[in-house]
Amino acid sequence: MFELTSKELSILKRLNTPNKIQDFLDSLPINYEKSGETCMSPRRVLREQKAHCIEGAFLAGVAMMLNGEESLILNLKVGRGDYDHIVVLFKRNGYWGGISKTNHAVLRFRDPIYKTTRELALSYFHEYFLNTSGKKTLLGYSRPINLKRFGTKWITSEKDLWIIAEKIFDMPYTRFVPKGNERFIRRASILERKAGALTDWKKKDKRT
Fold this sequence. Notes:
The protein is α+β, with helices and mostly antiparallel strands. It has seven helices and seven strands; from the N terminus they run H-H-H-H-E-E-E-E-H-E-E-H-E-H. The chain is 29% helix and 17% strand.
């Protein structure tokens, strides 16, 4: 299926719940891209045993797909000086949750308690900030994007998936902050910034 090997299929089919997918992503070292920027396919992530945000999202999306669920992602759009973040969506009993690959103490998994994807996306607003200044950078969120729209060849591609990534990052998005309220947004406190600097994996780790 999808030209995956039996070993790859076995690994991904075992990830048959959002919790299992998240646990698997958490076990992977963060990809620090020490040899240059990457946007690896799920096959390459399984081989290299590391991933960053969008690479983890692609793998999670395929695991969802193989286990009979929609492979929906949400792009969290940020301002200049920060990076967009990709969340894989899932729904339980009519409520949305999110799977997230990150190296930090924030921007993590969301339990399925949100009535809308807007509610879920808003839950990331207060913790999306620059550690250097505390400035909050989350501008808005995209509509759910089904990974199936990109076909299936990318799942086992040996090339970086920049074309898909760029399409995702360029998707239209809905803004959060009401016009005129930008000046009321408070910067993250020193304590919040310290917490935001906590990481699972250090750059000096040989596995990253």
